[in-house]
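INTERNAL AUDIT FORM
Audit reference: QA-55
Scope: verify that the stored structure record matches its stored sequence.
Auditor: D.O.
Record contents follow.
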Amino acid sequence: MTRITKAVLLAAGRGTRMRELTLDVPKPMIPVRGKPILLHILEGMRAAGVTDFLIIVGYRADVVTSYFGDGSRFGAGVSYETQVVQDGTGRVVELARAFCGDDAFLLSYGDILVEPSNYAALAVLEETGTVSVKRNEDVSKGGAVFVDDNFRLIDLREKPKPGEPTSPWYNAGVYAFRPLIFQFIARLEKSPRGEYELTDAIREMAKSGHRVKAYELQGEWADVRDPEILKELNES
C-alpha cells in the first residue's frame, strides 16, 4: 500500500465549448461557486495529504501561474510544465515523468469536480493504478470502463460509438498511478482521432497483467464541459 503525496493536474486546454468564458482564462480557472475549478481540486487533494503538485499549463498559462505561484499560500508546493503541442492526453502526461520520478501520483483533468473525500480514497494505492468511475453517465462523451467481478479494469474504450461494446461505468477523469504508466505511455501510437490517448496506455497496462482497480466516486461529480453545466453548478 502506498500513500500518495504528489499530484499532476492537467490545465493546458482553452475549452472552446465554453465560448467567450475562456477568452481570457483557461477553462480550469473558470470560477465555480466562487473559486476556480483548479483550486477546488488542489484544496481537495491537499486535504487528502497531497503536498506537491505539477500543473501542466498551455493556453493562458500566465493566469494559472500568477494565481498559484509556488503554492506556498495554499500550503503546498506547485511547479509547472508547458504543453506546447496539443496532441493528446497521453503525451501531456509524459511531461510529468521527471516530476513523478519513482513516486506514485494522482492525476486529474483540470475541469473535473468531485466530492473532496474521494481524493483520500484515491491517494491510498494498492494496485498498479486506479481509475475513477461513475455509473450511468453518457460514455459516448468520455470513456467506457469494463470491469471484472473484483472491480478491476479489463478494458477501457474511448467514446464508443453506437453498436460498439459499452459499459455502465464511465471514466470519471481522476486517477492514481505508479510510475509504470510512463512505460506504456512511451509506447503509444496515435489513435483513430489522431491523438496519443492516455486511455490506450491504461488499457495496455491492464492487459499486460498489471492490476488496475476501478473506484466508484461517491457524492457529487461534474465534468465542467460546457456553459450549461457551469450554470447548473453555480445555481445549485
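Auditor finding: record pair retrieved intact. The domain at 2-235 is CATH 3.90.550.10 (Spore Coat Polysaccharide Biosynthesis Protein SpsA; Chain A).
Action required: none
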